[in-house]
Amino acid sequence: MGFAELLEEAGGFGRYQWLHVTLISLPGLMMASQNLLNNFVSGSPAHHCSLPTNQSSRYNLSHYQVDDKQLLRAFIPMDSSGSRLDRCRRFVEPQWQLLAANSSANVSQIPTEGCLDGWAYDRSEFLSTTVSEWDLVCGLRPLKQMIQTIYMGGVLTGAIVYGGLSDRYGRRSVLIWSYLQLGILGCSSAFLPSYSTYCAFRFLSGMAVSGVILNGVSLKVEWIPTKQRTLVGTLTSFFFTFGQMILAGLAYWLRDWRKLQLVVCLPQFLFFSYSWWFSESARWLVLNRRSEDALKCLHRVARVNGKKDIEDTLTLEVLHSHMKKEMDSSRSTFTAYDLLRTRQMRRISICLLVVWFSTSFAYYGLAMDLQKFGVSIYQIQLIFGAVDFPAKLVALGMLSYLGRRVSQATCLFISALVIFANILVPADMQTVRTTLACLGKGFTSASFTTVYLYTGELYPTVLRQTGMGFVSTMARVGSMAAPAVLILDEVLPALPSLVYGGAAVFASVFACFLPETLNKPLPDTIEDVEENGSETNLAPLQPEEGVALKEGVVTTEGVALKELKEAEGSGLNAL
């Protein structure tokens, strides 16, 4: 049907497709490093106020027989928990009487002051981070999370800017530029001297990450035959999972934020160097009246796949006859307003906005606060990456047997319950807290897998890409808001978890109002969506009519455009 038939004639899923999918998927290993980099680049080492210089020389401490760690008690008060030194205050004058073994002095009345001489940092977990280099602690602590929020703002901006540019200039051109932009700006970030310039470069890097992900997925699925797209999309999504585990290993090995920043961005130059080999999307070329270029790309793919004889039979006339319906439909214009204009479309869009926001909000709320579990941050990152493997498999099973709506609502609701349960677990029960956190991360990951597929099935063909861009924007907003909410733990330690869990519960309710799409035909038009929403039971999926080849002339009797967009939707879980 349409372009899918041409792909089969050009070798189907042949040698070119294997190379194409592999080379485009490889950067996924580094995309996890970009999204979760702030966990390690801006890790918060244990710290306390620096001691006033030469204070100990003014006193004879030989009769106290204390080491350096005990000596700190004379300069630094204990925090409210009484289990560790205060991170932001010190005594105005040294309290040497506190070093005595039987000291029972009341320290609550002793005057304290801020860290006038800066801070001293523990170097056992991190050798250097942005926090220790620019003193993003105490009153400046919110600036640590602001780095991630600014980065996610760049991801949101990039989705808007590079989405429009790819429609105008092509997927391949924008993808190549995005690799180069991320390589240059990411590596340059490792040498920046100030917080403000680092934030600016992270914003621009986030834009490039959007360009890589969105155009990489589009260029990948548009060269894959329909039958292989779901499987390929699912398998290639594991590159991101592996990337989370690679990040843990690199961060443990380097432990210096500048080295880590440089190492995770250098591979972008490799990706840039081979990206020139990619062929532009033939679909995009045809729809933009560049049929000659599309034909050259198809001939090239056929040659790589060993189908050299197709060059004589695949001509411009055959290409146009296959793509006639797509070319005709490209003349119709739909806007984001059509997502809200009618009743059923409005219900679907509002519910999906909430689901996308809450899923991303809860996911990054868990993934960006690894230090609160009291376990090695490198170990918890490795576990969080590994838990995505069973989570994706569970999601696929639920989608096949329980349906989309039940799966979506269940994943969100269970993730909320797990987040709430972790609030009640005492801080010293680290094994239980870590286990619950992994379960929450797994179910939010499964919710992501579900919502990508579900969204593609809910929107009609004529608005599927517009709808995906519209609702996924809320995911970027959620990922921006998640780090900022972590600051609320200064008001109440449990408050961020309450907000994350509450958002997930709220979204699970909205998910219940979405129509079920399991084994249902994909809608082609807005009218199809309105009719399906008003029916109690939709008709079972019917086979589509095929394509007849008669004397070298192709007649399309099916819905070629529908097939095209259906295939694109099925590959969205590659993100």
Please describe what this structure looks like.
- The structure is a single chain.
- The chain is mostly helical.
- The strands form three sheets. A two-stranded antiparallel ribbon has the order 1-4. A two-stranded antiparallel sheet has the order 2-3. A two-stranded antiparallel sheet has the order 5-6.
- It is built from 28 helices and six strands.
- The longest helix is centred in the last third of the chain and has 29 residues, at 430-458.
- Strand 5 (547-550) and strand 6 (553-556) form a beta hairpin.
Question: What are the main properties of this structure?
Answer:
disordered C terminus; elongated; membrane; two-stranded antiparallel sheet; 575 residues; two-stranded antiparallel ribbon; mainly alpha
Write the layout of secondary structure elements.
Blueprint: H1 3-9, H2 15-25, H3 28-36, H4 38-41, E1 47-49, H5 68-71, E2 90-91, E3 112-113, E4 119-121, H6 130-134, H7 142-169, H8 171-189, H9 195-221, H10 226-236, H11 238-254, H12 257-265, H13 267-275, H14 282-287, H15 291-304, H16 310-313, H17 316-322, H18 324-329, H19 338-341, H20 343-367, H21 377-386, H22 388-401, H23 404-424, H24 430-458, H25 464-485, H26 495-511, H27 526-534, E5 547-550, E6 553-556, H28 560-570
Antiparallel strand pairs: 1-4, 2-3, 5-6
